[in-house]
Amino acid sequence: MRTEKLFIGGEWVEPHGGHYEVVDPASEEIVGLAPEASRVQVHEAAAAARDAFDAWSRTKPEERAAILDRAADIMARDADANTVLAQAETGATTGTARGMQVAVGVSRFKRYARGAMEPVEQALPPQINEAGPMGRAGVFGAVAVRRPVGVVTCITSYNNPWANPAGKVAPALAMGNTVLVKPAPQDPLSVYAMARALEEAGVPPGVVNVVTGSAPAVGAAAVDSPDVDMVSFTGSTAVGQAIGEVCGKSLKRQLMELGGKGAALVLDDADLDSAVMGIGTTFAFYSGQICTAPTRVLAQRGIYEQLIEKLTGYLAFMKVGDPRAKGTVVGPVISAAHRDRVESYIELGRKEGARVVAGGERPSGPGLERGFYVAPTLLADCTNDMRVVREEIFGPVVVVVPFDDEEEGVALANDSDYGLLDYVWSGDVARAFRIAARLRAGGVGINTVGRNMEAPFGGFKKSGVGRDVGSYALHAYSETQAVVWPG
User: What keywords sit in the KW lines (predicted)?
Assistant: First the structure.
């Protein structure tokens, strides 16, 4: 049980609005008390970041790298405690909290400690200019140089309170920006632990600031502050659109990773066991609370029933329960409100005519009397006009739509408001690559749901704006300046 303070200008500050409870989704017990910042305090945090920017942006890359590297070591040193905390406030299974949350957060700080040392200059070919109104004839050299943007507001998602903030904060700091971090209200305590690691690592006052609140007004203040130059947001498309309106009025930079409804095209020559393993991650990781999940399965008719049968069999081995218990595969969703939302979509699917092949009922039994559990659910015989097919459910629910030929499969995949990550399963790799080129998505997995953590990440359409991950994140958190001189 911990009671947190805001982190503003290098000081731990009492919140004006008191505290609110952070609840364990598995037990419904109180994990800790998070501070409720006022609008004034959020703007003070942005101002502190502004005051710290000039000095931090001029530090040597080696200094920034050393601080990020030390912070990573401190997070790794405290990995056991950080795992317990992450699990308590997210309901993630032990393996997910340790390996997919805390460990990925550490690795991202390590990656961007190296990233701080990457060259920021790109030499351009010289240009020969004749004499004219702009001056005498000459040969002009030029370089394109990446400069820090300034103050970056980082608004993070609730499904991964270590990896997601680390993927924003670390590259932003590596490039010489200062940050105002506003974690998701459901699980902000891990981000305060991250801030303590950065403080211990020697980050100067004001370079990192953390504010929280259960009210939307806190996030709004973190976006509309006149001291903020850029907003990096991960979350729903609806909130992203609202943030975009504010940023558009003042021309602030944006990096948006929004909703997803990943299409998984399973062709009649696919390895069905491989496809089932990939699709099954929807149920296992974060209880389906992951925007990259292959939640919209498009199955060619030749293998449609066989795929349904294999997915049903796979679900039988997915133990739902206490995420701390050995053997648990599917833990709770983040809150009672979200559980109700997911269950309402399952009921909507029934009304729309989908066949509930597995799941569909709230799980019950010993140890499930409390907690926000949703049974992994498989909806078959769906059509692309159903809301359960078109809208992001963000829970352990997979919908399956049949298709006849490749043309129809591609058309169905692209008939979506979203375009984050799609997938193709086929025994013909050349065919899979050909299909991938036609998919309107920021990424395509071919016979895998695995990720290359140097590959650009982001979405088409309503799934986002911009790209990050690897060196792409360093570009995302920088502006390009042209420097020209006479030869």
Answer: Oxidoreductase
Degrees (nearest 5) of the Cα angle 162, 164, 168? 115
pLDDT surpassing 80 at residue 134: no
Q: How far apart are CA 462 and CA 439, in angstroms?
A: 15
Residue 177 backbone phi and psi in degrees, to 5: -80, 165
pLDDT digits (tens, 9 = 90+) for 17-65: 999 999 999 999 999 999 999 999 999 999 999 999 999 999 999 999 9
Strand pairing class (253-257; 464-465) = antiparallel
- Domain 2-258+464-486 identical in fold to domain 263-453: no
pLDDT of residue 195: 98
What the block records as the tokens of 286 is 């974060």
What fold characterizes domain 263-453?
Aldehyde Dehydrogenase; Chain A, domain 2 (3.40.309)
The single residue of 291, 343, 382, 392 carrying the catalytic annotation is 291
Q: Is 291 a catalytic residue?
A: yes
Phi-psi region of 394 (alpha: psi -120 to 50; beta: other; left: phi over 0): left
**Annotated catalytic residue 247:** no
Whole-number Å distance between alpha carbons of 387 and 382: 10
- In tens, the pLDDT along 151-182 reads 999 999 999 999 999 999 999 999 999 999 99
Q: What is the mean pLDDT of residues 206-230?
A: 97
From CA 60, how far away is CA 67, in angstroms rounded? 11
Which pTM was predicted? Answer: 0.96
**b or e along 383-394 (b: 16 or more beta carbons within 10 Å of the residue's beta carbon)?**
ebebebbeebbb
Cα torsion 213, 15, 6, 209: sign:
positive
| Closest C-alpha among 14, 409, 303, 338 to residue 185 | 338
Tell me what the mean pLDDT of segment 386-392 comes to: 97
Helix 406-414 × helix 429-436 angle, to 10°: 40
Mean pLDDT of 92-105: 96
- Give the helix/strand (H/E) hosting 472: helix 470-476
Could you tell me which CATH class the domain 2-258+464-486 is placed in?
alpha beta
